[in-house]
Amino acid sequence: MEDPYQNNVTQQQGGDGGQYTYTQDGSGPDGYPYQTDFPPREQDDAASDATEGHDEGEQMYEGEYQGIPHPDEIKEARRAARMEARRKARQAAQQEDEDDLPDQYENIMEDCGHGRFQWTLFAVLGLALMADGVDSFVVGFVLPSAEKDMCISNADKGMLGLLVYVSMLAGALVWGGLSDKLGRRKCLIYVLSIDIIFSFLSCFAQGYGFFLFFRFCSGFGIGGSIPIVYTYFTEFLQIEKRGEHLSWLCMFWMLGGLYASFTAWGIIPHYGWGFAIGTEVQFHGWRAFILVCTFPALAALVGVVFMPESPRFLLENARHDEAWMILRQVHDTNWKAKGEPERVFTVTNIKTPQTQEDEFIEIQSETGTAFQRWTVRHTTLLQQVMSNIMSLSAAELRLQGLFLVIVWFCLAFSYHGLGVWFPDMIKYMQYEEYEAKVRVFHRERVERFHFNFSLVNQIHREGEYIHDRFEDIEMKSVKFEHSLFENCYFEDIRSTNTFFENCTLKNTVFYNTDLWEEKFKDCRMENTTFLHPKKGCHLNFQEENDIVIYLVSFLGSLAVLPGNILSALFMDKIGRIKIIGGSMLGSSACSFLLLLSFSQGAVICWQCLFYAVSVAAWNGLQVISVEIYPSAKRGTAFGILNAVCKFAAIIGSFIFASFIGITRIIPIFLAIAALACGGLLALKLPETREKVLS
Q: Which of 40, 150, 279, 478 is 20 to 30 Å from 29 at the Cα level?
């Protein structure tokens, strides 16, 4: 009879080591599979490092000398394998939940309906967008008057316009990125508050340096409004309402232009309106205009305070309970307004992606001093924003994102470039017309005459003025060349663009005039006296500002109304891509007609047509920009695109303005080419009309 233990092998270890057994099939007495192919150890290795320090009486695992795993180690390995399997299962479930979140959120928004809540938010965010539109016109309207108060040179005027756009560019980048981390509502409150505070301070800035700084800070604030407003409103709209209502929202930017033009025409034209405190503090009409321009931002700020945060943002940041409460508020507000208060919000659970970034900030913020906590929190926040920006270059977004950037650049380059070209071209035409009517007086001799009437648009060459009096008059665009003034008297003279070149002045007195040394070029003076000169700016000069500029801006803003209405009605019917492409190609054709404009009226007419056609492209671009990117990066992406827009506006404004008075062909053909290329490239963008917000 075969011995049942015949196949068992027993090995005896010398010394004080214990005895152990294993079977040839790899199973030990405890049922665990042991490996039998461990490398052999020499006898001298019995006193290994593993046994060093053990007491002789301490029990030791017998297989340790042979390198065979301990049963506890095997159990631990199996436990770790089970935990890893569960982790992978959770990740798979989490990914499935994330895939389901967009569809679930869309279903919730459909259940909430579209009603009173969305219209209230529409009005509030519209005011914020209107504030951005107003700020875009402020500097252009106040400069003609502000330069008199603060003696701003032409170079400084260009610097002011440039810095305002640069500040808006920076604001779009910073606040767009922060809105994805801090929240849409919170960042919008910051943006509007900064704009209001620094716009208010700029009203009272007496020096150009302070005025420039305050306008820069104001631009940095309001520059972030556009990416936040569109992102915020999009996340409260259901898919079939999105294109139309975002297009209606664009109308508020137009209303901002109308508001700025109308109030500027009503407040600024009479420069002397206002008051002065001594000689240091001046407050004229243009300062009151800036103050009035803060009203839309102030109204928007009050409204946003009472609005809730975007529930989609809260869900993306795993704040389920807050999002659920807001969605129920939207549901109840809409259905109560529709006369169905009995309808119940039935959603009980909303899937949310898991995030650990905020947890990391909180853990780090629990330790250290207050400054260290502040530093850790904001450094980590900056890292997250930069990570969001860099992740936009992912392979699946790289090509379409590049196309979108180019289309934004082409449209902004042409639109803002021509936006500068239109009023500057009208001013140049006015100047040419004015120059054509100049009166030239050659070798006139005037003796013992009392000039008590204004001198306007005149050139006096080689004249002689003996014992003449110039009292209480205005000199506007007057030039004296190679003339003689002997025993003359000038009193209470108000001048603009008036100069004396290569003249001789003998025994002449200037009393209380603004004709100071800079007005006399290469002149020879003998016994000439200046008493109580009004040096510096034209602080008391009553000047009628050219209302044509206000009219041009007003008509240009009003002209976009038909295009806004049509794009809103057909955005969801035709699709975003066809509207963008068609509008840009149509605008290119309208730009060609500018070659046929030889009068101020023709320029204004073609300007209105261009604005009416191009506004549809703006609406389509803004809609597709919030739909094409995922919710966690939507504000960041829109901020980058808006920064590209401001950068293109800077380049376009500089290039188009530099050709005024030289040629009109180059800027017009640049606009035609940019719009045509952008329109054709826009047709390659993906259609997002049926896209659920990812």
A: 40
